[in-house]
Amino acid sequence: MTEMYRSQKSIDTDPILDVRNLTVTYRTGQGLVYTVRDVSLQIAAGEIYGLVGESGSGKSTLARAIVRYLADNGQINSGSIKLGNTDLLTLPMSKMQKIWGSRITMVHQDPAAAVNPSITIGEQIAEVARLHLHMSSSQAREKALEMLRKMRMPDPESVAKRYAHQLSGGMLQRVVIAIALTTNPELLIMDEPTTSLDVTTEAAILDLVRELLTEYNMAVLFITHNLGVVANICNRVGVMYAGEIMEEGTVRQVFNHKLHPYTRGLLGCLPKVTNDKRNVSLSAIPGFIPRMNHLPSGCIFGPRCKLVEDDCQAERPSQVEAEAGHFTACRRWEALQSNPDLLMDVQQVRDMDEHEEGPLVFTASNIKKYFDVTASGFDSLFKQSGTEIKAVDDVSVGVRGGFTLGVVGESGCGKTTFARCIAGLEEATSGKMELEGQLLPYTVAKRTSAQKKRIQMVFQNPDASLNPHYTIGDSVSRPFVLMGDLSKEEIQMRVKELFSAVNLPEDYINRLPHELSGGEKQRIAIARAMASEPTMILCDEPLSSLDVSVQAALINLLIKLQDSSKISYLFISHDLAAVRYISDWVAVMYLGRICEIGSSEDVFLPPYHPYTEALLSAIPVPDPDVQQERIRLEGNVPSPIDLPSGCRFHTRCPRKIGEICEAQEPPWQDVSDHHQICCHITLDELRTMQSEVIVGQADTLREVR
Amino acid sequence: MATYILRRFGSILVIVFLASLIIFSITQFLPGDVAQLVLGQFATEEAIANLREEYGLNNPFYIQYLDWAVNFVQGDWGNSLVSRMPVFPMVMSRLRNSAMLAVVVLMLYVPFGILLGVLAALKRDKWPDQIITTISMMFVALPVFVSSLLLIPLFCHFLGWLPANSSILPDSTFGEALPYLILPAIAVALNSLGYVARMTRAGTIDVLRTDYVRAAYLKGLPRRQVLVRHALRNALLPTITIIAMDAGMMIGGMLVAEVVFGYPGLGRLLLYGMQNQDLPLIQACSMVAVALLCLANLIADLLYGLLNPRIRVK
């Protein structure tokens, strides 16, 4: 279905943006750093050019260089940038300023930060209209409303009078796009425009951008780290690595043929919604992105490439046009072309016989966590009534030994609060938790040290969860010291064992956290959690701050550790593909409640809960050939203070059947022994109205089942 | 909005009540007997006893407090023990003078502080910034009595521009008083100027780094407009808090400056009261100071809400 939106316009019309041999440097304490080297790209009108790469690949620097808005220590060393017939690099800054906001506009990553908090939304659009379109104040106000209407903003008149903090992230991103399109620019640069948004919001924004492009005939430079988003929205892709473009071509050429080992590596790293740990193992890219001031000789990807030869390291390979419009910077592209599976995921059947369902090690029944929002200070003298946020409302799950329970849901659904209740970091309001048959007290303070050992947690942000003044060896040995019954030598031994278990060299032991990369820090966090030989590790979005190539390695590590020590995981993530891949059992949460739970194969097949269905249809799948149902949710997630009556999802449910949804709480329905859905619609009706949301073309796995 | 202000006034009343309790108790526990003070060293025991009875000094503490409070609320602030004159008009006329001084102080340090702070932020780490930050640090470190003593020789003796003594007639108009106000105002303002400049600098630097300022530049808005419309509004929020919090410092500083320059303001009256153990005067001046501080904070909060829609009360 996505197909119809992808224009097949050829690229040999005159490009709007023409960047040639651009090199950008930063002056730093370590000398000149070449952050972008010899990059060329062209974007035609009506075309969305996706620039993908991991953090540190130089993609944002490239965008900033194009608008000549580099940091003070940045400089464009050589190359040319042309917008239409204007040579941007020879313009004086005063002329360049006139191009900003009129001929080139930008949309940034975090919409909440990009909108001024103390100026009304309408005025922030109107000021552009006054400045560049020379409109009067009243015309500009009218224009602002018109733009908001074009963004499908509900009630534009009231939105125009509001301030940033009164709008949700998705609405704010619409506002930012409205500002960017007001002047009908020739080039729109979108720098990670959906990264900070939830999947359903992201899908809606991508739909909007795609639709607007039929009206505004502009060139779009779309920067992202998410290959799924690229496959979804772009016409052409450039894969950037360490400041250079490795491969470029149409989405179909790049995703289907993947003529660069790095592209194959990136795609191989991504868990797919159709795969799980039983049939595919992810192939992580070894090594790290090189530091920009210590670039390897020859091919910059050489040190991490499995196909590397001596010649690769002799000189930098030049771009080869493998087929019309498809360029690669790999010398060995022919080898890649002749073998499409080279370097890709290994299809394998893991020996899961040993991975039998263990005994139930942890159960949580009817867990509730309500936060009181009461007035404080002097106001409490005048206000008595407090309101409650029902963050977790009656959630029950069970976890078996050596088993992974995935919890998915958008931000604010209560998944993190739930994990914190289990960990004892938040005191549950009511409910019952049992660990290996023992009743578990609500807070850490009341738990015995044996109970504390059995449940460990890995947090989202490893930077914040490791003490910056402790060496990482100290951090990992801390649990042993606290347990107190090991000698120094034994502790030393155990720490070394853990380091090797998480694939970190032993000589790292004396390093401080800031000397490690994000992925390495997260390994340390996992090692620390493993130290007390826990029954269960709660992983709260452990991957989301990491690059894809690092994510894959960590997923593999988690699976390896589970295989060897039979740990259970509660794996929380908003990334459905990752949850699908790693979990045996999946719970889908919405507004503090579970709405669907089941084995991960079953949850990802119809019948679905309508919310699961919408989530699945919103996932950006990194494969342009995948057919995906388009189901979009209307409106915003309701406030947890003022929960909808009946079924909590009824305000946004595309399959709402009527008053019953508003009036009564939906019943649990058993689809099978290991799949339950909480919905008013009968399973038979769900089966008839739903089809599989994501269907790959070469989807042979399905037939097996 | 009206209910918010009403609520705030309610809480101000609570604060003023608590402060009055504290002020009244402290003045009660000051050494020395009021009757003895009034009648002088050579008064007879009998005369003292009579006066104690007359003043109600033998009543229990809470009765004394209630009497005092009820009278105070009704505008009867008692008579000065020293001059025997009613306290209320005395305090009010001095309050007017202090208000004139405060206006000049505010007009000096708020605009200049903000200006210097913004300038320093824009020229961050360059020489103007270094000069401004150094000087404002000096100002912050300089107590009012020291700066007064430095200003007097400079402006009065060497330059001869301004009078060293500010003892104006108590009922001078603002115009008449202005030349006498400038030096004490500068002495008080320097301290706060330093704070405001540093706070504004920090606030502006933070805001200049935000995405929305970058977005404003990339909208093509001219630099001036980005600064004034997009940056300053947000950058000045912490400054406003500092100015409000500084009101107490300012009242303290004015007390010192009024004494050094001999200016007939509230501060000097308070000091005079203290030196003579003139309890009604001390109580009245302290109560006025407390009320002023509360009002200053209220005004700052309202102003903050005006600039910051996030906390604007519906």
Rg of chain B (CA only):
24 Å
- The CATH superfamily name of the largest domain in chain B is MetI-like
**Might you state the CATH topology name of the largest domain in chain B?**
MetI-like fold
Low-confidence stretches of chain A: 1-11, 698-705
- Give the CA-based shape of chain A: globular
Q: What's the arrangement of strands in the largest beta sheet of chain A?
A: 6-7-8-3-9-10-13-12
Structural class of chain A: alpha/beta
How many structural domains in the coordinates of chain B?
Answer: 2
- The amount of helix of chain B comes to over 70%
Order of helix and strand elements from N to C terminus of chain B: HHHHHHHHHHHHH
Based on Cα principal axes, name the global outline of chain B. Answer: globular
What is the averaged pLDDT score of chain A? Answer: 86
Task: Show the helix and strand layout.
The complex is a heterodimer of chains A (705) and B (314).
Chain A: E1 17-28, E2 31-43, E3 48-52, H1 59-66, E4 74-83, E5 86-87, H2 93-99, E6 104-107, H3 111-114, H4 121-132, H5 137-150, H6 156-160, H7 169-181, E7 187-191, H8 199-215, E8 219-224, H9 227-233, E9 236-241, E10 244-250, H10 251-257, H11 261-269, E11 280-281, E12 320-323, E13 326-328, H12 333-338, E14 346-347, E15 360-373, H13 379-382, E16 387-400, E17 404-408, H14 415-423, E18 430-435, E19 438-439, H15 449-454, E20 455-458, H16 462-465, H17 472-483, H18 488-501, H19 518-530, E21 536-540, H20 548-565, E22 568-573, H21 576-582, E23 585-590, E24 593-599, H22 600-603, H23 610-618, E25 627-628, H24 659-663, E26 668-672, E27 675-678, H25 683-689, E28 694-695, H26 701-704
Parallel strand pairs in A: 3-8, 3-9, 6-7, 7-8, 17-22, 17-23, 20-21, 21-22
Antiparallel strand pairs in A: 1-2, 1-4, 4-5, 9-10, 10-13, 11-14, 12-13, 15-16, 15-18, 18-19, 23-24, 24-27, 25-28, 26-27
Chain B: H1 2-29, H2 34-39, H3 45-55, H4 61-73, H5 87-122, H6 127-141, H7 144-158, H8 174-208, H9 211-218, H10 223-235, H11 237-261, H12 266-275, H13 279-307
Helix pairs in contact in B: 1-13, 5-6, 5-8, 5-11, 6-8, 7-8, 7-11, 8-10, 8-11, 9-10, 11-12, 11-13, 12-13
